[in-house]
Queue: 3 jobs
Job 1
Amino acid sequence: MKPIFFGAKSDAATRMMTACMAVTEAGVYRGPHYYSHRPMIRVQLDLGQLENWPSYLIPDFTDRLLALLPGLEGHGCSLGRRGGFVKRLREGTWLGHVVEHVALELQSMAGSPATRGKTRSVKGKPGVYNVMFAYDDEHVGLMAGRVAVELVASLLPQDLQGVTGLDRIWKLDGEYQFERRLADLKRLVRRNSLGPTTRALVDEARRRDIPVTRLDDRSLIQLGQGRYQQKIRASITGRTGLIATDTAGNKSLTKKLLDESGIPVPRGVAVRTAEDAVRQGLRLGFPLVTKPLDGNHGRGVTVGIMDEDQLRFGFAAAQAEAKCRDVLVERHFAGNDHRILVVDGRVIAVAERVPAQVVGNGVSNIRQLVAKVNQDPRRGDGHEKVMTRIKIDHLVEEFIGRAGLTPDSVPPAGQLVPLRATANLSTGGTAIDRTNEIHPDNAEIARRAAMIIGLDVAGVDFVCPDIGCSVLETGGGVIEVNAAPGLRMHIDPSEGPPRDVARPIIEMLFPAGRPSRIPIIAITGTNGKSTVARMTKHVLRYTGCTVGLTSTSGVYINDVLVHAGDATGPRSARMILRDPTVDVALLETARGGLLREGLAFDSADIGAVLNVAPDHLGLKGIETLEDLANVKSLIVETVRRRGTSILNADDPLTAKMAHRAGGRVIWFSLAGSDTSPMLRDHIDSGGRAVVREAGEDGGVIILYDEARREQIIKVGDIPATLLGMAEFNVANALAAIAICIAHEVPILTIRSALAQFRSTYEQNPGRLNVHDAHGYRVIVDYAHNAAGLTALGAVVRGLGRYHKRTIGVISIPGDRRDDDIREMGRIAGSIFDLLFFREDPGTRGRERGQIMGLLQEGALQFGHPPELIHMIAGEQEATAAALAAGEQGDLIVITPTEVEKCWRQVTEYQPGNLLHFPQAPQIAAE
């Protein structure tokens, strides 16, 4: 989450001095997160002085707030009943809680209802609150949060109204412009909301547990994940052919194809000039219709043309809307206008469309009657509601002029005044459901018309005197076949029952038995995530599936790097879930992304928590190991009911997650089943566990499943474990095996794959990568915290008997606590003979040299000789210095930040040649 809410820039001290309330952070949780499994907006609010001002102490605050937002009366809040929140207001609640409810109510008032929220105090920061509330559209939610803060501040006494973190407060002559801001919010809702057609399809998909992802700010939607995804834009689907769409857009070609297939269509011809229109119209005979050859939504259509003047007007209106300048002049079918919806070759719904009209009252003119009709709350602008507001334009004026009327005419009481000849809903028409009345002949004609054009979803415009009688007897037929038909006339007709037209479209895209989700495997933990993910990917590749992997080194599709850099957050996960080639998503999931944005998915099929160790404490409100465990437990909390949670039985904080874990639990353990009564009971009751048991070269890995014991592989047969010496890779192998068992990979496949997994740069970059040259050995390992360095130290000590000296190049990110940095130095001092402490150019807020100084303090506290400690700023420079200091028989361990650059530097290094590193400094003892 980015600091400061809406673009204002001021330091914290200034905010505290000049304001009573400050917005210090804001952001969007797009998936399950630390505080809730629902997507939410988070606003961090520092109340400052207002911490001492609960709502009941602020004069007239509650009454003035309710006058502006009467809907707050319906909020149940924690009391769970209507009026609960108002009771809290009158008894006294803090303003962060008030902002939460105001933001929810503002969204509802703007037409984007949201009902869930929570406000929590920030640990260790009195007066600071995380205000969280649900949203439908994140842009609307963020704006609602801002307006909520503005509104609450405006109701405070004058001397308490200050707010920072906002670029401005909308005031005019000293008064807060609430109505103006609410209107802004409503406009944003209208601009961002899905139309009725797309909304119906999205809602149906969600009812079927199909993942929904909005891909743009309009109506492009991805349904499903990975290889199973389908895309829609309104009622156009990924199956809608371009040729079919183009054909439907060419009305002359459509009519030709239908006519040649025996479908009744009106005779007509395409023209480009008014003279041609008149000449062809006289040949065809009145009444006539003019329409753009490539138009849609009834724009530019004139029907019921009875003379040359009307024909010229109709031609001009049509050509103004025609992209290709061609106008279709055709015979007018007499009868009522119907829209027949055909999906996948089946007639799904029928609606009779009635043109916009008003009924006279003998007092009001036509313009006033239209205004009254437009007051119907079901009418809105464009496609935002089930009906569209009627607009009086030149087409309306021309049409009513045929009857000798103008917009200022006053029709007698009871007189029906049609305003248009066309019956499109987009011009204010209404719809009557006729699904149960259509004659089988008419349904078959419409069905065949859609299939002849080739549309999977088609709106067939059908004109006939009576839809219940066959047009083969009454006359009439198909006048258009439309791609991307609107669904709202069927979803919510003006008369008759609504039809569930979204269901057959979603069923066509996802027929019974076809999945919409790819398996999601999410892995978290303080250490080992990358190696476990890469081991698992290596095994899954043996099954022949396409694996999408996110990791600290990038996003991979199988073995192809498609995006370099740290890719352990939700953005990278979404990249995998959107890739149409991926069969399985394997997602390394770090703490940072969980806290910043939440998960990129609503649920996982397999979730694994490897361990919880001190790292990143003191950041984003995570102060203790228990806090960190609560963050990481989100991975198993969101496992699907039929999924599997993988947990480390040897880690106490991870073991405690079992009661919150979803699905079935598989434990893994280095210590073996005999050391843990909990694990023994689990195995005895038929539960699954993957454990290491005693044996040569590190032991053997055993699977327990339903009281069955099966040996999977000897530890020594997994090259990455260095014959069991790299015990942390034994633990990583246990976790990877448990994941693969949960994914139903055959044991023989697991055994064969792990026997080929080595801790090389190519297979596992930055994790125990070994390079032997120049008479000494170099290990590159991304040990970036105390637990990771301790585990690496065990390997170094095990290898120590083969080497003369051990040399370490050590650092730690600057956003760790001072004690964590000193601990890293103490551990390094206990492992290595010669130390090079370094720090990156980006010290994450610390002064230059401070990180190295704290590392040195820790090493000296352990008792490491000061003359054998060197401090060098810069990763490349420190690496070059250590390589230059290496002698025959030494072991050099480098813990890099930029793994790829470091490995290249190591492999390209030549003794005595520093040409690659021209700025490498002299090694200076501190």
Job 2
Amino acid sequence: MLKQLTLFLALFIASYSLYAQQLRLNELDYFEKTGVNVLVYSNQYNGMFNDEKTAGIEMIHHGVRTVTGGAVRLQNTPEQWDLIPKVVSRNVDKATQTISVELGYKDYNFNSKISVTPKGNGVEISVFLDKPIPQELVGKAGFNLEFLPSAYFEKTYLVDGNPAIFPKYPASSTQIEPISNKIPQFNGHTTFDDRGKGEFIVPYPLATGKAIVLAPEDPERFVTIKSLDADLMLFDGRNLTQNGWFVVRSLLPANKTGKVLTWYLEPNAITNWKREPMIGFSQVGYTPSQDKVAVIELDKNDTPLTKASVFQINAEGKFIEKFKGDVKVWGKYLRYNYARFDFSSVKESGVYYIQYGNQKTNTFVIGPNVYDKIWYPTMDVWFPVQMDHMEVNEAYRIWHGAPYKDDCLQAPVNHQHFDGYVQGPTTDTKYKSLERIPNMAVGGWFDAGDFDIQTGSHNSVISSFVDTWENFKVDRDETYIDQKTRYVDIHRPDGKPDLLQQIEHGTLNLVAQCENIGHPVRGIIVPNLHQYHHLGDAINETDNLPYNPNLKPYESDGLSSGTMDDRWAFTNRSSFLDYQTAASLAEASRALRGYNNDLADRSLVCARRLFEEADEATKHPKENEDPFMKMMGKGADVNTVLQLYITTKDKKYADRFLDQIWPALDRMTGGTGRNSGFFAAFGGRSGFNQALTAIPYMDAAYKAKLKGYVLKYKEIIDNSVKGNPYGVPIITSGWGGSSQAINWSITNYFVHKAFPEIIDAEYVYKGLNYVLGCHPYSNLSFVSSVGTRSKKMAYGNNRADFTVIAGGVVPGLILLNPDFLENKDDWPFFWGENECIIDGGAWYVFLANAVEDLVKETK
């Protein structure tokens, strides 16, 4: 009997162990086992940016997303703007443990079905066709699965037993094919330039076989793929684009239907693997008096410890335990469990680290001046590097030459561009399609990691900079800026406040738009996709010579050229943009008064005119106006009239502001959903900021009435942040939420200054601490070069160098549905996680100065 029981137990343990190794569908409809998650179209391709490497069949391998893009694709190594399949249907069958997806390419009347089912220690992936591949896609349609290069750098692979090393830099072979063989890209655009003879590049595979083993030496990244019926080809997508991934691919067979392809994918799973705890805290540190709460992110199979400690490192290099306290369990948020460790009682200035079990954090500082310089890199380096139409030097390097002296041409009508730009049936200007618009090669900033000018972002930056100037009188001078010679020199004072010089630089471009085009424009961007994906020095995006249609391409007379590389202005008019620009120019005119009086005068003239013309336009809306802009235009004049009143003191503007602000606040505080005051507070000039900004210019009755709305606002935000352990808004979308956290804190700063009895200073510190490291996934500071440990890679114009531009603020965390927050620091090409934008930088500069102001309250 004992032997039988022993045998039974052994069989049970073996059976359970086998079961534990199998991937199973969980309640969130993806496959899961310890250390491995396989997602099947929990995230889908979108139609605007096409392939963002965040869709299809994906794998999270020991806590890191290493696989994406599992789909039937039409290229060996698809680029961002190559055609993507549309999800026709997705079905989850709990009984058979199968997820099935139907994908379609409408242009080719071609659909395929993919099913994913657990098998052994992995999954079986099968492709089904109801009808044969269209003839034009034979040899082109295949099933692809993409592997993150940075996860496999310095590792090996085996193809049918033959060993090789993953290349750190793309070095495989390519071939040239006629452009007639190429599958068209987004809206007829092409990533290949026109210098060749109608050719494009096709990469050869690194290796081909029936079985591929990736990283057999690394248990966390070890994956085996076997094909039952077709060759597996391993490609390096970086031959075509620096953000390409390693691609495993099998072509679909011609003239076949039913099940036409089967792979077996087995990711290694480390037995009893648990993700290491991640301790979130501010990498900059803390002032002695503020709250200090670390948030500990734990694997769901981990057991929280009850205690943690704070150690000080003294001048002799000795580690001294200064505090030992309780770790309090918070609960589950998305896929992880969380606990909080409050060490606010530690107030002595010094260098510290947190110890949780055997885990020690890097060091941070407690002291009264920790926030004094945290905005310097953003103003001293990042914004100068973003300056358009200027040569930018820093010590021994040139960041970029003076680009776009050929600005700009009128965008052609009825044109669908990339990056969201569209020109409608009219130009809304006096210019004809592709006619030169004069005097536009002045001022402005590169919007982000690319090189276009986006007017809405410029407005936000100028408004935020004026706020910083007027509230904090920031007069730091570390940058030499000469508009006449188009030259900028970083770390070289020139006797002028950098903030005013940046306000001037942005305003120059806005005024140029208003004076030469007639109104603010959606943006100014290069015409060709092969320019748009440019990396490196912006001066090389164009030949800097005005386009001359009488010359041949690449022909020049020394003053002009026949090359159509000049940027286009997208000029369809919107009342929303007119109102927004009028507000920014009204603000700029105040800041520039006494510094550049001519530009201040011109700004105010433009602001008044835009406001009057926008008012008239709202009475007679255009039939073809962009619905989004039309919606945004409603109520867009509230801030405009406020700023015109502050600038001019004309009572008519104040009267109109008072007529509109109370109904606007009623809408903002009317609920707790996405349209509530909580969300309306985002965006710098939106939400309560308008009402709060007005307080010094209104009577006591205004402030008294506003207090009731502020009380509602506090109730809303307190309820809204209860759902996560960080106490700040976390945006779960395709673009990270750093800017929202920053603007949430900015709004709270204005509330605190006016009503300190309602909102205390901690509501301001929380958002900044979140951005500086107390957030999910990692504890890196999201501001490059700020804090002990900060982002090492970001999506700037130098992203191909796998580095950062100091002071850039990255978007932060994006949600991979249904429950995985991510911010990669070994792969800089995810713009939703890592692309630094100008308005985000300007908002951060304001918040950093606001926190400095709060610190003064406690000194």
Job 3
Amino acid sequence: MAIDMSKTAAPKGKVEQRVVYESGNEMAAYAAHQINYHIMGYFPISPSTEVAQFLDLMKANGQHDIVLIPADGEHGSAGVCYGASTAGGRVFNATSANGYLYMLEQMPVQSGTRFPMVMNLVCRSVSGPLDIHGDHSDLYFALNTGWPIVLCRDPQAVYDMNILALKLAEDPEVRLPVLVASDGYFTSHQKRRVMTFANREDVQAFVGEKPPEGFAHVLDRDNPITVGPYMNEPDYINNCYQQSMAMYRAEAVYDRIRREYAELTGRDYPILDLYRMDDAEVAVFLLNSSAEIVKDVVDQLREQGVKAGAISPNIIRPFPARQLADALRGVKAVTVGDRADSYGGHGGNMTLEVKAALQTYENHTTKVVSRIYGLGGKDFYAEDGLKLFEAAIAAAGSGSGTATPGTAADAARVVKPFDYHGHTPGDPAKAPKRVLEPMKFEELKTGLITVTPDEASGKLNVRVPPLRNLTKKPKRIAPGHGACPGCGIFSGLELFFKGIEGDMVALFHTGCAMVVTTGYPYSAHKATYIHNLFQNGAATLSGVVEMFHERKRRGELDHLGLKDDFTFVMITGDGGMDIGMGPAIGAALRGHKMIILEYDNEGYMNTGAQLSYSTPLGHRTSTSNVGKQQAGKVFHHKDTAQIMAATNIPYVFTGSEAYPIDLVRKAAKAQWYAQNEGLVYGKILITCPLNWLSEDQDGSTIIDQAVNSCFFPLYEVERGVTAITYNPEEKGKKVQVIDWLKMMGKTRHLSKPENEATLREFESEIERRWTVLKAKHEHPYL
């Protein structure tokens, strides 16, 4: 049912409430903690990451019992959530953009097998190219997944809809997972006044204290079930029909639930939010946050005598087609604003659905104008809303409004049925110009470093001159990047690059190193650079490598006058060897001639310092907080070098800028093996002062102490044989682990008596791994 909110007073609430001043992400987390879900599987991605962060902080302080499971990627987080939901409990998640697309395969599985859960989609642009700001391009991918979708235009709605969503998902007539969509960085991060239930018990009384009885799950030994069977055609279409009917029933169920909620709280979310639509002749249809902005424009136009109105749905799956057609019955023209394009469809998804609704319910008089707006987080102001209304006003007074004009005068009156709003024409005079000249091959191929195979030992002999002799080699990354003061990424990378002779093609995973060096229209990279997402960099560079060698074999590159083969290097970090581990192992097993170099800063620093699998035990991050119930990360760090060594690639190494000659020597070896035998993997520990809570100038010292404590040992695995390249015990430089930890604010809590058990466990694991490494060093067949 459509309700005109300009005519209806909100009922008074019946429960005790209190006022908070919080953002949309905070309110999603707050609602989840009041519900007290059983499980949240998650993976960090901006702008939804804060939801897990806030829940982790509350967990550390003992405010809820939700089990937070950091997955290896969004696909994994979706699997965690699906598995948990089949086990009968309540499940929660939050994601955005490419992360949602990565889990997209799992979405129809969850809805098709009818296991409820709630997921917040904090809407963001889907790359490429990469943009992390808010639009609806991820939301539109969700339309065909079989999940009911409710919308949130402000933080208040985020809180309320998260409570409504669970009750909707678990209703026996629906029994589907529900998506709660809000606008990234607009709703998710902007703080607003929000009314909340004062008592958790009232929230749980509304949704029910536990999942409804009668839901089949995999933990009932007296009622074993098969989940997700293989189906043939007649059964599968019946399953889909049942799911479809459940989706359409969700509309009536939602309408009933929102009325119950309105009676409790005084806040109502009708299926359609209609603003001054009772006598409107022109209207604008928008989703989420921009729908609130356009209401001011309606008021301004009304003062000028224009009968304007605004429409915004609170639920788009199922799509409220009949209600919308009825609401537009007396409207001459409506502009539908889509914050994403359905490329080639002559309008965005909402435009197409509005047109279909009007056709289906025999509203043949309302003209529809489509405008794509606000992509990539482009701000939407009242002036932009006025432009959308002007298009509707012009269409309302232009006859057909969309006919092909016959004269110049007609052309001026006819409104384009589809267009973008807010794009700007290119100016050839302002075309980006090359700022950095390509480096000369002779500058890169110095001959100062020599690598020769030793037939007797089967290893490589490397001669590295004094580092001062290598200063003549140009830096491959220009100093004009935007890294934080004290960031160790580029000092570490440039030191490694000193050992690479000749031309190089680099691929960077998403991460700090990528983000701070490629702000369009500029780039700090002096040589060819490619970006792809966290999980697929190794596969992408594999394709580049193989295409190079095949085109070279066919003679298609002869005209370029290449003086040597490229060295292909993939740079990963910020957790990229969690979500990207599978493709990296695949590339290693296939043996592509390339280098994978991981800069390990012990977290997902580019998204706000969440834990990654490389974060050590007990270390503080924004998703491994320290409080009375938790003292940092609760499991040990991932040894990616040893994992990659197990793939039997020709060369694996660890390095540190604190030991420059060692790192340059390993880089030279890495290049030789990558050009002659196969894939190479290297890992360098780098400092992140911002998130390690350390002084900018102490980075090299901290890294040195990490090596001397044996937390980050320097070694190489050459053709399967392990050799420690720096032994602090033999040098008399070994330090206590706690002496290293005290240098960083993120670990100082480990020196407190109450965290002694965690510290001892961490020290024990470091010593165990160091002992195993020494055994491998002493015994070449280990």
